[in-house]
């Protein structure tokens, strides 16, 4: 444990305790890195292999050399926890080297790993759905970073503020008014004969649970389309849901003033197929 951290948080930097070198990290100064968040349940990091594939993809986008899978897995195991109660792990791969200036001088990564207590939510978030609003914060277009879970998340920070009571997510659009994602989730909705999700060609994060849902839907024979669509398409949908690697799948019960009557049949079918553990606030 690190004395300067909250007691319930455990951290490792390059396999050891954090030191003052983190103060000059390019992650801190420029957001020069990528990250993934994963759940440890019953002593196992869920979907670690899939998370690693995503990390490798995102590292390539920033011209970073990812660590070996075995090294990263061993350091995650060294964080411990997650047997009696689930915990959350965060993997940050930040470009190594300090000093001033934007220009990178290496492709090597520093490995920053953290362990947190898992969040807890009411069972109704899974069984009855959640409420979402449209954020007034627009996502900027940068095709070279589209889909990448990089460390620059200020748009999400801005969009996560000032929600009305009873709202669990804010959905974000690009400058053209097309749906992209939630502040912490990917979005899906059901139209006649198909499952739709935003295309993510210009911005947004391609989450691991999004990939799992797309794979599962195709295996169940559900046609899937990645689309560029305005908010009106969502309001006209039969049902909708959001996903991420901690919550799994939450049906959308309401979006702004539109009710979906959650959960829908497709949402339930996919939720059951994912079999993701629910982080209930009352076990």
Chain-wise SSE layout:
Elements: E1 10-13, H1 26-30, E2 33-41, E3 44-45, H2 48-61, H3 69-79, E4 87-95, E5 109-117, H4 124-127, E6 130-139, H5 154-159, E7 169-174, E8 179-182, E9 186-191, E10 194-198, H6 208-219, E11 224-227, H7 231-235, E12 239-244, E13 248-255, E14 258-259, H8 265-274
Parallel strand pairs: 6-7, 6-13, 10-11
Antiparallel strand pairs: 1-5, 2-3, 2-4, 4-5, 7-8, 9-10, 9-12, 12-13, 13-14
GO molecular function: 4-amino-4-deoxychorismate lyase activity; pyridoxal phosphate binding
Catalytic activity: 4-amino-4-deoxychorismate = 4-aminobenzoate + pyruvate + H(+)
Protein name: Aminodeoxychorismate lyase
What attributes does this structure have?
2 domains, single chain, 283 residues, nine-stranded mixed beta sheet, alpha+beta, five-stranded antiparallel beta sheet
Structure explained in plain terms:
It catalyses: 4-amino-4-deoxychorismate = 4-aminobenzoate + pyruvate + H(+). Pathway: Cofactor biosynthesis; tetrahydrofolate biosynthesis; 4-aminobenzoate from chorismate: step 2/2. Belongs to the class-IV pyridoxal-phosphate-dependent aminotransferase family. The structure is a single chain. The chain is α+β, with helices and mostly antiparallel strands and 283 residues long. It has two domains: 10-117, 2-Layer Sandwich (D-amino Acid Aminotransferase, Chain A, domain 1); 124-274, D-amino Acid Aminotransferase, subunit A, domain 2 (D-amino Acid Aminotransferase, Chain A, domain 2, Alpha-Beta Barrel). Helix content is 24%, strand content 30%. It has eight helices and 14 strands. The strands form two sheets. Strands 6, 7, 8, 9, 10, 11, 12, 13 and 14 form a nine-stranded mixed beta sheet that branches. Strand 10 (194-198), helix 6 (208-219) and strand 11 form a beta-alpha-beta unit. It is globular and about 55 Å long. The model has no long low-confidence stretch (mean pLDDT 94).
